[in-house]
Amino acid sequence: MVNPILLIAVPLGLGFIIPLLGLIWEKPTRYVPAAAMVFNLAASLLLLPKVLQRPWVVETAGLPPPFSIHLVAGPLGVGLSLLIALVGLLVAIYAIGYVREGPVAKYHSLYLFLLTGATGMVLTADLFNLFVFFEILCISSYALVAYHGDRAGTESSAKYLIQGAIGSSLVLIGIGFVYGLFGTLSMADIARNIDSVSPMKLFLPMAFLITGFGVEAAVLPLNAWLPDAHSSAPSSISAILSGIAIKAGLYAVARVLFTIYGADTIALLVLVIGILTLLVGEMSAFSQNNIKRLLAYSSIGQIGLIVFALGLASALGVQGALFLVVSHALAKSLLFLSVGYMIYRTGSMEISSLYGMGRRMPVSALCFTIGAFSLVGLPPFIGFPAKFTVIMAALERADPLFTALVGVVLVGTVVEGAYFFRIVQGLHFRPPPESATPARADQEEAPVSALVPICLLAALIVAVGVYPSVLTHYLGPAARDLLDKAAYIHHVLGP
Amino acid sequence: MSFLADYVHYIGCFALVLIGLYIVLVKTNLVKVIIGINLIDTGVNLFLVSVGYIRMGTAPIFSEDGAAGKQMVDPVPQALVLTAIVIGVSVVALGLSVAIRLYEHYGTLDLRKIRELKW
């Protein structure tokens, strides 16, 4: 059986080998991330049936928890690492052909570190270790945003770095408070002893931790960096930032809220923040003319919806949130990837310059349409069962307030539909702008290395949309992993 | 007076964090902002060490005092601080290299003039 620690060790090790390999022979370095992610994908798939029966607690220093740093491979951790490996693999395949200029070996090295950080975050059971992996993720994404070294890229990287660094410092202060209160960093041990400390003392560390992780999770007042960073990065990096990096931040927030604290007390606040993030994200996306900025704002909107679902704090609500995480990771990476070569061919990110691309790049445009429809929540795509679960969970509360909030969520969806349908209509039915370069039939469509991941993502979106039970089968245990504090403590620390 | 003596290190480290935060919020020069981030890091590290500090405790290593059963300070926060220092240094290094690249593009480090991207 594969030890879950290899899910972190293999990409990290290969990430450090890439620069050395690059010194000798640069060409093969671009295949290394894909190879590492194939390993992670296979290992997560092997682990999943086993951890569904019982989470696997890995001791790293030969001491049982709560001593030393340990990993907990539960249904949620392995499920998310599976998602990270899947999206990471497809984006890595895309990047083989897409990333040609600049320090290519460094790109692939940093890309692997980013995925290592995300995988480590979802597997670790130690609060400080969570912070370390969080920093690995953040630092590599600061660098990758500035990969092209152009004006927009460096400027947004600087913004992202300043905000992210302050967020990390807040997390560290929170960890200091928690350690001062409990004398331990194991999340299960903290959760076990949480009732021994007065709620007044718990408020401050919780505020610091959630604000700090919230910067990466891009919830409402903390997301000024996101539209710039996601729109100025190379398209493959935008895909992984939108698909994976935000989710890792959200995972950290959810872990702190549900597993350590038990979120009943501030669930309403989380709910309101989610709704506000959703509305602001969708409204800002509506008024954008730049396609990548539009997709970035749409990410903020979707994050708001996920936070809203988490704030419901019920089993079905968290299940819906996880469903949305999967659906948004697949659909948003598909959108960024398919739009990547359209931007490359037209040389412009303006939406109007993409008109008529449906004829020039039929496959990419079709896949973009699938991704857009899925995000809006049309059947038979994955977005439909995901949004449906969330709305079911909200209506389950049978409270006029929640019914009203569902109304607001649906308004957000309508706005989302409005801007996505506008783009899709432009792609397929409008004539190309007159300034467009004349079509050259031979090299219009994206190359095969890009089409394979795009088509696979589109196929996955349709397949899960038609058979949602494939996924819901795993989401139930994963949601319990997050919500059921007692079981988590029991699994990690023993009876 | 004893309150001050007991908590002076906490007051000091949060003063450092606040000074750093003030610099990040107010200064317009990118290098100064990065110095502010570094000050926040320093304050946080000091805070972590003082969380584990025990008055009159010895170093948490195998030594004569330790073998004699004297009080030792908590070693875990010190290990955390070592990690946090490394992370802080790498963030600052990356920030400075971004600042160099920004200067090449804009010819200035004034954040008021570097604002092509907006909401």
Q: Tell me the number of strands of chain A.
A: 2
- The rough form of chain A would be described as globular
Oligomeric nature of the chains: heterodimer
Distance between the termini of chain A: 25 Å
Question: Helix/strand-derived class of chain B?
Answer: mainly alpha
Rg of chain A (CA only): 22 Å
- SSE pattern of chain A, N- to C-terminal: HHEEHHHHHHHHHHHHHHHHHH
Features:
heterodimer; A: 495 residues; mainly alpha; 76% helix; B: 119 residues; Helix Hairpins; 70% helix; elongated
Provide structural commentary.
The complex is a heterodimer of chains A (495) and B (119). Chain A is 76% helix and 2% strand. Chain A is an all-alpha fold and 495 residues long. Chain A has one domain (6-493). The longest helix of chain A has 32 residues, at 151-182. The radius of gyration of chain A is 22 Å and the shape is globular. Helix content of chain B is 70%, strand content 0%. Chain B has helices spanning 2-26, 30-51, 64-67, 75-106. The longest helix of chain B is centred in the C-terminal third of the chain and has 32 residues, at 75-106. In chain B, helix 2 (30-51) runs antiparallel to helix 4. Chain A binds chain B through residues 128, 132, 135, 139, 142-143, 146, 149-152, 154-159, 161-162, 165-166, 168-169, 172-173, 175-176, 179-180, 183, 185, 224, 227-228, 231-232, 284, and chain B through 17, 21, 24, 30, 33-34, 37, 40-41, 44, 47-48, 51-52, 74, 76-77, 80, 83-84, 87, 90-91, 94-95, 98-99, 101-102, 105-106, 114-117, 119.
List the helices and strands and how they pair.
The complex is a heterodimer of chains A (495) and B (119).
Chain A: H1 5-24, H2 32-53, E1 56-59, E2 70-73, H3 75-98, H4 104-123, H5 127-145, H6 151-182, H7 187-193, H8 199-217, H9 225-232, H10 235-261, H11 267-286, H12 291-311, H13 315-346, H14 357-360, H15 362-376, H16 383-396, H17 400-429, H18 448-466, H19 469-483, H20 485-493
Antiparallel strand pairs in A: 1-2
Helix pairs in contact in A: 1-2, 1-4, 2-3, 3-4, 3-10, 3-13, 3-18, 3-19, 4-5, 4-10, 5-6, 5-10, 6-8, 6-9, 7-10, 7-20, 8-10, 9-10, 9-12, 10-12, 10-13, 11-12, 11-17, 12-13, 13-15, 13-16, 13-18, 13-19, 15-17, 15-18
Chain B: H1 2-26, H2 30-51, H3 64-67, H4 75-106
